[in-house]
Design brief:
about 450 residues, alpha/beta, FAD/NAD(P)-binding domain, five-stranded parallel sheet, 17 strands, binds iron/sulfur cluster, DPD_II, 4Fe4S_Fe-S-bd, iron-sulfur cluster binding
Length: about 450
């Protein structure tokens, strides 16, 4: 057993990481699906979209060959509607609410239709939005992830000059660095960011980290308002013996390496254990398998009824050959010569519901051991609490506290997205960015909406 890179041929990597949701092959195929839509009054699909995309409207625009209008409908509600069409858990959002589900028929493939319009708009750089003349008001946005970019785009459309400070060398945040490559490619993420900034009035300064190269007090002094969309990023530690052995890795780091270094360059173990069962855990487990691991075991301390991922995600992991061990919690990581060799787990049973409302796992006293050479931790992410405290922001369980108008306790400083809610879907962050922009426009007295 060992952790090595370059396990597969170029052709195998390509096959393993090809687009999991291929687009419509022909225009007619898209039209057939679009024409199934009942254009419901009070459409439930629209209500279940956090950004309230007018789904029946954009689908109707597809049926009348008005692709530009369709892309505009989507992107004016969600500027990352292209990326969201690839990464949203639509089975629990728009498609999960489609009325066809009540008729025991397949729902309208809303995401695929959304992709049909937006992918073309982004690839062909359609100038769908115009920026109002500059108001000469300046806003600093920290973080070029979905919340920051959505905020920046909304502000710039209103004539605000926006400077975005991003700690990575590319924009897109979680979309670019934290999602399985077979769902959305790094190239698409780059194209999407360029599409957003092509509006004008948005300058992104890369490799600028809050508290290191850029400081909140300076931003407050030099800009009319500041929006913090710094996300979350620190992996939750397991706090068990052996966590510092070679071969123990954070899921977020593992996914980041795949996306930045490429498939052949990313080392993976032969027998891999993944701790946790959220979307990040599934992305790490499936990608470990697709990189050539012979065995991937997902260890989850509760049962399928409490799991945070969707059924679709779970099926994906199973189809990739990942094994799921329910009611098991890591107790100790064992190693030899500094390298992981085993994971000892406690067998759990379900007890009373905890604060999340889910039944909590309780140790049974029994243990079992897995032979592994790599352990990937995907037990959730922690907010950047140090950053919150260092900037005298009000701390709400490590996250930034805001009021109903997205304002922090610091005058002229607003915040939204994962750094406020602890981590939700990309589409939620996009809506948070829109809300933040509206609040900033109100603050600047420039909003008449
Ligand atoms: Fe169309 Fe389904 Fe939405 Fe109704 S619920 S408008 S059928 S996509």
């Amino acid at each position: 057993m060992s952790i090595v890179n370059n396990r597969l041929t170029a052709a195998q990597y390509e096959a393993n990481f090809s687009d999991i949701h291929p687009p419509f092959e022909t225009r007619d195929a898209a039209l057939v699906e679009a024409n199934r839509c009942l254009f419901c009054y009070d459409a439930p699909c629209m209500k279940s979209c956090p950004t309230s995309i007018d789904v029946p409207k954009f689908i109707r625009q597809i049926t009348t060959d008005n692709l530009k209008g369709s892309a505009h409908t989507i992107l004016s509600a969600n500027i990352m509607g292209g990326g969201c069409s690839k990464v949203c858990p639509v089975e629990k959002l728009c498609e999960g609410s489609c009325v066809y589900n009540l008729m025991d028929e397949p729902p309208i493939p809303i995401a695929k239709l959304q992709r049909f319009s937006t992918e073309k708009a982004i690839a062909e750089k359609w100038p769908l939005f115009q920026r109002k003349p500059s108001t000469h008001k300046k806003v600093a946005v920290v973080g070029a992830g979905p919340a920051g970019l959505s905020c920046a785009h909304t502000l710039s459309r209103e004539g605000i000059d926006v400077t975005v400070f991003e700690k990575e060398s590319k924009g897109g945040g979680l979309m670019t660095y934290g999602i399985a490559a077979y769902k959305v490619t790094p190239q698409f993420c780059e194209d999407e960011v360029n599409f957003i900034t092509s509006l004008g009035g948005i300058a992104i300064q890369y490799n600028q980290e809050l508290g290191k190269t850029v400081f909140l007090s300076d931003l407050q002094q030099n800009y009319d308002a500041v929006y913090l969309g710094v996300g979350v990023g620190l992996a939750r530690q397991l706090d068990i013996p052996g966590e510092d052995l070679r071969g123990v890795e954070d899921a977020i780091r593992f996914i980041y390496d795949i996306r930045t270094n490429g498939f052949p360059s990313t080392p993976v173990g032969d027998k891999v254990a993944v701790i946790g069962l959220g979307m990040t855990a599934i992305d790490a487990a499936t990608q470990a398998k697709r990189l050539g691991a012979s065995e991937v075991t997902i260890v989850y301390r509760r049962t399928q009824d409490e799991m945070p991922c969707t059924e679709v995600e779970l099926d994906l992991a199973k189809l990739d050959g990942c094994r799921i061990v329910w009611l098991a919690a890591p107790q100790e990581i064992v190693g030899e010569n500094g390298q992981v060799t085993q994971l000892i787990c406690s067998r759990m049973r379900l007890g009373e519901p905890d604060a999340s409302g889910r039944r909590s796992p309780v140790e049974t006293g029994e243990t079992f051991t897995l032979d592994v050479d790599m352990v990937i931790k995907a037990a959730g992410q922690m907010p950047f609490e140090e950053l919150v405290n260092a900037n005298q922001l009000e701390n709400r369980k490590g996250k930034i506290a805001i009021d109903g108008a997205c304002a922090t306790n610091l005058s002229g400083v607003f915040a939204g997205g994962d750094c406020v809610n602890g981590g939700k879907e990309v589409v939620d962050a996009v809506q948070a960015g829109k809300d933040g922009a509206k609040a900033i426009l109100d603050f600047l007295n420039g909003w008449d909406g």
